[in-house]
Amino acid sequence: MADVMIAVMPFAGHVAPLAAVAAAFVDAGHRVRVYTGRAYADRFAALGAEPVSWSTAPDFDELDLAATFPALRGRKGPRQLLANVEHLFVGTGAAQGDDLVAAYGERPWDVIVADNLSLGTHFAAERTGTPSVTVSIVPLSIPTPELPPPILPLRPAAGPLGRLRDRILNTALALATRGIQHAYDAQRAASGLPPTDAPLAAAWHSPDLVCASGVPQLEYPRSSWPVRVEFVGALAPTGSVRPEPPDWWAELPEDRPIVHVTQGTLNVDPDDLIRPAFAALGRQPVSVVATTGRAEAPDLPFPAPPNAFVAGLVDYAALLPRADVMITNGGWGGVLAALAHGIPLIVAGGDIDKPVIAARVGWAGAGIDLRTGRPSATAILRAWRRLSADPEYRERAEAIGRELRSHDGPREVVEHTMALVERRARTAPPAT
């Protein structure tokens, strides 16, 4: 039995996959603590893990980030991405590390496992000299000279001009993110850690092991990885706990295809995606199942067409086996859940990492990238007609689905982690 610390950024999209991982460690007989926000403490306690709450680090409400981080107010798109990274993910790193080191002082762990945006994990692992595992809950952002910057929604380019493009973009990105790099350097100093020549991009992944959600078919090809990477498929079937079936569930027609429209769980303005999807498909021979992303607020501020069914959240284990197409804002967990069922996608990625995810889905041939987070009804209708007319999208989605279904993600994270612990134990110097 190992003592395992799991660190989870307190967002619904982070908690769902790491909850599945925590449950797998508990089921395997390991002693598990989970460092996360108070809003999710009960969720992990119910799994048999011991919650450790953000204390020195500023706990926050994911539905109102600006209340804790005023610099995030009123930002969207690339400006939101950069502000989130600097103020939320980087700016809390030292305090997260302090919380974790305090927990280590109370009871040392054998290994720390964390989602890839938990920067404090890497500080804590470095300070305690313990092995760490990154569970990448989004597409891998490990940089390489062979590819454009991983945070940009660009496909690989070939030839001398393509390589020149990528060199220029990598240089420009380094200049654009100097403020974030300075913030990271300051957080290292606040943690009592020495300066490092490693770029910030390297700080989001453990040097020991990365367990990547997804499969290689959704990654741009590269010659090698600078760290050990193990793909583990999907980690959780849905982005939240299983809700009760909505009142209309029994009324869903059996003889019409279902198009699922999801606004995600972070930026949930229904005008961005649900409204134009209703306008596009309200007269089509389908049932449109839309989720607002808020269990406590399932209603919309505009009328739904007669063929639409609306809920805050829907149990994907029940919905996805019946769905024909998913229209999504590009959350990675939802994308993997759809592809695991062989469902082709229409992706409107507008914020954070979602444009990158949309680009990868389009590159993989498993769906259509609308290249905006606020598509028009015409764009959605055309994309839906393309998916319906071209079987290659579904065939590609089904091929990726077969690969995803060949994995048991949470169990594989446990296996890879314990193999790391055993390797470290064999190579550790003898005690004196």
Automatic annotation (TrEMBL):
Residues 287-420 form the Erythromycin biosynthesis protein CIII-like C-terminal domain. One of its GO terms (molecular function) is UDP-glycosyltransferase activity. Keywords: Transferase. InterPro entries: EryCIII-like_C, Glycosyltransferase_28, UDP_glucos_trans. Pfam families: EryCIII-like_C (PF06722). GO terms for biological process: antibiotic biosynthetic process. This is Glycosyltransferase. It comes from Agromyces kandeliae.
